[in-house]
Amino acid sequence: MKRLLGRPWSAAAAERGAAEQGGVDRGEAGGGWSWSTGASANTAAVLRRALWGLVLLGPLLGGAALLTRPAAAGPVPAQAPVGAPATGGQGAAGFAEQFVAACVAAGDGDQAKLTPYFPGADDLRLEGASGGRSADQLVVVRLRQSDGDVWSVTVAARVSTAGGAGAGVVHYFQVPVAVGPTGGGGTGYVALAMPAEVAAPPRIQAPGLVYGPWRPALPGDPLTQAVSPALSAYLTGSGDLSRYLAPGARLAPISPAPYTALSVDQLAVEGEQDGAQAAAVPGDGIRLGVLVQVRATGTDGVRVPLSYALTLRTRAGRWEISSLDGAPAQAPASS
């Protein structure tokens, strides 16, 4: 049996082996095989061993089937409903600005102009001429979420009257705005009350900056020689701005150019204590923050004061513009 399983064998070899054991005879018709007594005994032994093998392997195969059976599919969890679009204070701020403008301009009989913002406006008693006052330059100066989907919006508005009295006076109005989903899947807003006039937001003390005192921008100062042509190219379009930029700096001139001329008046330099001009440009790779005060001449000939916070870097014996900073650099907090 081992020999038969260990190597391939042909039909002729099988016939010879069977003949040596008194084995296999051809049928008279030449079709099929008839087995001798010895062959039948061998076959019975093989079948008997296979049967015992199945009996012994049965429990193992059954256990393997249990272990590998896929888990029964449970109920599919219900999918959470899609919620309303995310809402926030940006829409509430714009809604409050429009509501304040409508309230300032409202007069006798204008209740219907306010009900789209505040449904309770039908019961208001309005006085004065419609449009007798107007609100301009509206801007949100404070925005906070007071309760759930309710936002408290403080709007600054410059209120003027038709007769000119009180022109240019800034008022502050606080508006409670509720935010929620609409039937069409969008976001809706409603005022919970009429605006309340409030005091101006308090002014804080300005934080300290890293720059020293202001000093004149002298023509021979290497810092002036760096910032003056760079800002002139940036604001007026005169000259090639890239000539004054450090490698890797990205700054493009304003287009169209808003000014026709530029003068650099003052500099405040990072780390300076007495405002004295530096004698020479240090070695390559030194970074320095500079606050620049300029006057730019508009197309109408009026000179406008502007300030720029710049970071400069040394290369090849000169200062170059590394970046136009978003804000002046604050001094580190004292311990």
TrEMBL record:
* InterPro entries for the chain: TcpC
Region listing for Disordered, in residue ranges: 1-31
The UniProt regions of compositional bias labelled Low complexity, in chain numbering, are: 11-22
Question: Out of the domains of life, which is the source?
Answer: Bacteria
What is the name of this protein? Conjugal transfer protein
From which source organism is this entry?
Answer: Kitasatospora kifunensis (Streptomyces kifunensis)
